[in-house]
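ok so i was messing around last nite and threw this chain in just to see what happens. nothing serious, just curious
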Amino acid sequence: MALDGQRHCWPLASQYDRFLAFDDLYEILSTKTPSEQREIVAEIAGSLDGLGEEFDSHATLSIQELKRLEEGGLITIGGYTHNCVMLSPLPEWEQVREIGRNKQILEEILGHRIEYFAYPFGNEDSLTTGIMRILKGFGFTLSCRISSDTINVTEPPNLFDLPRLTIGDWNPFTFYRRLKGFLD
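result:
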């Protein structure tokens, strides 16, 4: 596959090969626009010859599952972007479209206002004053990025730059160990 003038080829024979391919593609796709992402994924899927079937462990939530998850009372559903793109490299009109479309769909499904937002890819580069202005314009009241930072309780926090932890598809022991390590 040719991307940005470079030829890419990923062997997929072993689990390690697949992890390396995932890491490379994650980095490549994270900076592309939604239409570029779709083109790249379509080209890759076409070259897999049926090998790219989705595993049950990697399936997205159905509408019913999303509603049930929120009904439990322990989880609040928040906004993201419609196409899981990094916002900062996009032009403002596309940032507005990505944030607004996701918020609109979630509010229609859940039947209430969505107030919280998580920055895709969640790093410090994700956070700009322009994006914070867009979020406030859509009625979001706080947002968070991936960070192991803590909040200083002696100062008012920036509600649009709150830390969040990554939670993986971990077994209960690993989840407990990670949570305990954070709290210690």
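not much to say yet. The beta strands are 2-3, 6-7, 116-118, 142-146, 162-164.
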